């Protein structure tokens, strides 16, 4: 769907100095007291909205239902529905916002907050959390619209449905407002729900990763792999009730510069589901957390658990070495550890 964030969709004049627009200036990225391109275009692109059905997620889900109406009679089909929301800017209809903050609010509207150390006071940080939750609730509503359509069309008995995200977001936790700095649980531990008619509903502690989704889909279609496929099919876990998948899961923010010793700002983490080691863009890691006893990751165990640090870091080195990382990259990361 066109028009999201910095997309140059609409060109009509827009009053960026009006009272409504000025409320967005105080806490925004990347230039405080100015409107960055992503937000400036968003405001102009969404000025036409008159009802909830005009929001991006509603438009996306309604398009998906139309596709189903036209294609559901195929013997098999695959539909990927990617909604940009609840990505910022967070500007859901007011009735969603008031579900989480009933009282009137006066102050800056942090719908497009800056990444990095949290510059907002407690009141504004709470408002950002309210806006995020409201935006997520809007998305839930319209995903429900799609699921209801699937049910009404009689497809629930023959269709796998995978619900997932690409990353989370820090809303003041650990003093940060970000998705691409330290890869705490709020960023890296994302939802994954799989519905399959032949499966018994349950929750599994198995470590999974986004790279497991393609082989899972190929497995469902009983399709031969035409080339190397990273990741493992999750279908045996879904059907057979097992809990073993990966021994370790690796997360990294390679969208800015990739895994280079001095490029971009891609933080990362390696976890076995019990211990999590945060990986730094520059220098050696320095944060280790024990998730069962410290799910909020507030007690750094790096200095007191050297064995776990080494074990997790070696798993990270093995991962990049086995998945196409050149020897010089592996050696560069190896040399970071004393």
Question: Explain this structure to me?
Answer:
It contains ten helices and nine strands. The chain is of the alpha+beta class and 338 residues long. The protein has a domain at 1-159. Strand 8 and strand 9 (287-290) form a beta hairpin. The chain is globular and about 55 Å long.
SSE order in H/E notation?
HHHHEHEEEHEHHEEEEHH
Rg from alpha-carbon coordinates: 22 Å
Strand order of the largest sheet: 6-7-8-9
Q: Any low-confidence stretches, pLDDT <50, length ≥5?
A: 255-264
The secondary-structure class comes to alpha+beta
Distance between the termini: 49 Å
> Number of DSSP strands?
9
- Proportion of β residues? 5-15%
The global form is globular
Provide the residue-averaged pLDDT.
90
Please describe the biggest sheet, giving its number of strands, its sense, and whether it closes into a barrel. Answer: 4 strands, antiparallel
By DSSP (H or I, 4+ residues per run), the number of helices equals: 10
The portion of residues assigned to helices is 25-40%
Question: What does the secondary structure layout of this molecule look like, with pairings?
Answer:
Blueprint: H1 19-22, H2 37-45, H3 56-71, H4 94-97, E1 116-117, H5 122-152, E2 161-164, E3 170-171, E4 176-178, H6 185-188, E5 192-195, H7 213-220, H8 235-240, E6 249-252, E7 268-271, E8 275-279, E9 287-290, H9 306-322, H10 327-334
Helix pairs in contact: 3-5, 9-10
Short description:
With 338 residues, the chain is α+β, with helices and mostly antiparallel strands.
List keywords for this structure.
10 helices; single chain; 338 residues; three-stranded antiparallel β-sheet; alpha+beta
